[in-house]
Specification:
transmembrane helix; Alpha-lytic protease prodomain-like; Cation_efflux_TMD_sf; 4 strands; transmembrane; alpha+beta; 10% strand; 2 domains
């Protein structure tokens, strides 16, 4: 089991622990807001399971049926998670609506509030690590999992403070109002996740900063070539694809052109990890005089 697999499996264990703590908090207090918070944690567990499946599949090497690898499965996983988050938000809205119609006094049991606070701390620590690891490993599934946990933390803090306020004021209607707040937060998180995941499925290019760095590397390391043009990039889960045309003098030997390509590839890999790089070598009459000028 690789590092990324262990991280994804750890998310499932953390999700189950937090789920148990939050349902215990709801059972002790009877709060609709805490119940909505616990419902969101069910989605956290499903998210973690989907992330483990996605990173496990995406790590498989390319084969005859999938010559570009299996990286895009992480985006499908993230889309599924986004849809589940939206469903969870609708379920919470339903509970909030019933609470508005029939407000029920809550029991602000200190132990229940403590359990919810402990769940928030566990989520906070794991969320911080998950986002860091996900960006480091270029895993959309882990980042999606971490971003959802971040939303869960924000809503949990709001719910916990709100339940304390309900206990102090006696305003039972605040409880379903807080549940509705959680639903709006969850819905926004689901929308952002769906938007970003669909962008990945549509072969969105690398960020501008990384594109500029690739252009700079080509300009500095392709000594002997004339120019580079038609730079294209895309991200497929943890895999990055870089493609461009490299124009060389017409009388340059294949061996020399190949050496230039090797040098450029090594430099790009030092910057981006292990991207898939395709360089199309062209003679000087193919120059467009509008691409990357070689230093």
């Amino acid at each position: 089991m690789t590092r990324i697999h262990k991280i994804a499996a750890g998310s499932i264990l953390v999700g189950l622990l937090v789920l148990g703590l939050k349902f215990l908090a709801y059972w002790l207090t009877g709060s609709i807001a805490l119940y909505s918070d616990a419902l969101e944690s069910i989605v956290n567990v499903v998210t973690a399971v989907a992330a483990l499946f996605a990173v496990w599949t995406s790590s498989k090497p390319a084969d005859a049926d999938h010559p570009y690898g299996h990286g895009k499965i992480e985006y499908f996983s993230a889309v599924l998670v986004g849809a589940l988050i939206v469903v969870a938000a609708l379920l919470i809205f339903r509970e909030a609506y019933n609470g508005f119609r029939h407000p029920v006094p809550i029991n602000p049991a200190p132990l229940g509030l403590l359990m919810n606070a402990l769940a928030g701390v566990v989520n906070g620590v794991w969320c911080w690590r998950l986002l860091r690891w996900g960006r480091e490993l270029r895993s959309p599934a882990l980042v999606a999992d971490g971003r959802h946990l971040l939303t869960d933390i924000v809503s949990s803090v709001g719910v916990l403070l709100g339940v304390v306020l309900v206990a102090l004021t006696g305003w039972a209607v605040l409880d379903p109002a807080l549940a509705a707040f959680v639903a709006v937060t969850v819905l926004w998180s689901g929308w952002q996740l769906l938007r970003d995941s669909i962008g990945g499925l549509m072969d969105v290019a690398l960020p501008d900063a990384e594109l500029d760095r690739i252009r700079e590397i080509i300009a500095l390391t392709a000594d002997g070539a004339l120019e580079a043009h038609d730079l294209r990039t895309r991200q497929a889960g943890p895999q990055t694809f870089v493609e461009f045309h490299l124009v060389v003098p017409g009388d340059m030997t294949v061996e020399t052109a190949h050496a230039i390509c090797d040098r450029v590839e090594r430099a790009i890999r030092r910057e981006l990890g292990q991207p898939h790089i395709t360089i199309h070598v062209e003679p000087e009459e193919k120059a467009k005089h509008s691409g990357i000028v070689i230093s």
